[in-house]
Amino acid sequence: MKARFHDGLTAAVHTVEVTVDGETLAFEVQGQAHRWSLGAVETERVGEAVRVAPGARGAARLVIDATEWAAATLGSDLERRSMRREMKLVIGLTAFAAAIALFVFVGMPLASGPLARHTPPDYERRMGESFEAQLGVALKPCKGALGQAALSRLGQRMESAADSPFRFRVQAVEAPMVNAFALPGGAIMVTDDLIKMAHTPDELAAVIAHEAAHVERRHVMQAVWRSLGLGLALDAVVGGGSGAGQQAVILAGSFTDLRFSRDAESEADARGQALLQALGLSSQGMAPFFERLAAKGQSQTAAEVQELLSSHPDSLRRARESRVRARPGAPAFTPAEWAAIKAVCSGQDRPLRLPRLGGKRTATLVNGSLQPASGLE
Amino acid sequence: MVVAVPLSGEGSSLRIEQRAHLPSFLGLSLKNGLLNLITLTLYRFWGKTEVRRRIWASTYVNDDPLEYTGRGVELFVGFLIALAILGLPFLLATFGAQLLGPAIAGLIVVVMYIGLMFLVGFGMFTAFRYMASRTALRGVRFHLKGRAMDYALSYFGYGWLSAITLGWFWPAAQRRLAGQLWGGLRFGDGRFRFDLEAARKVGVYGPYALGWVGLIVLYIVFAGALFGVMSPMFAAAEGGDTPPVPGLGMMVAIYLLSTAMVVAIVAAFAPYHAASLRSVAAGTSFEGVRFSLDLKAGTMVCLMLSNIFLILVSLGFLMPFVQARTLKLVINRLQTSGAVDLDAIRQSAQAGPRTGEGLADAFGISPI
Question: Which structural domains are found in chain A, ordered by start?
Answer without folding.
Answer: 2-76 (2.30.29), 114-356 (no CATH)
